[in-house]
Predict the structure.
Amino acid sequence: MDKAIVSCAVTGVLTNPMQHPVPVTPEEMAAAAKEAYDAGASIMHLHFRDQREGMGFMPTWDPDVAADISDAIRDACPGVLLNFSTGVMGPDISGPIECLRRCKPETAAMNAGSLNYLKVRRNGTWAWPPLLFDNAIDKIEKFLKVMYEEGIAPECECFDTGIVRSIPMLEQVGLLRDPVHVSLVMGVASGMPAKASWLPLLVDELPDHVHWQAIAIGRQEVWDVHRKTAEMGGHLRTGVEDTFYLPNGEKTTGNGQLIEAIVKIAREAGREIASPEEARAAFKLAQ
């Protein structure tokens, strides 16, 4: 589609709200989403955080928390589409599944392959103990079964080139249904770098009918990726989960400024911004 669907990654995982402008409570999440919605975002990508005092830097899969946050955002942003994170390590996916079934978001992240999740400090030590973000085919199958049963459109997150190349295979064996939506996740230290020059090569590995967006994680380098994405016809995402920095290098006060910046880039590339209704149509969701 010619119009760009803009998503906002409203909050992240583990980022300390005492140090960064990440929302935690339903009220904070709704206010942050409303800023992004008013600036042009049609989709809100959501993680949920522990609501206990002093624990807001930790994630939660409590379906009551997910429901409270979802309801608050839907009330604040009429017609908005919700996109739930489902990322968990290990075989137990009961938490994300319970949140999906309880809240029925319009879309959900579907991690499409495994990645060694690594980062090294300047002194040559691991930033955290090496982790395997495991997303084997049987785990993918279980997520997709629930998503399709509940009428939730999967958004396939691809952290590395081999995962990108697996998307047509998932479609060929019948695991993915049309329309297929892919996110090229760029900037994770052990995954694909946030480099605009990679985008033509990555998109060339996708079938022509696939909707795609870039998720660029980092600082100023992310804005070159967003500009190239807009120029190539991809959809756009930003938010305080992905970056705290505006194109001019200043630190953002929240999601609204980031969405304003990405909308400006889209329009400079000759793209108009899709409404929530147009985003629903692209995902083939009921209006």
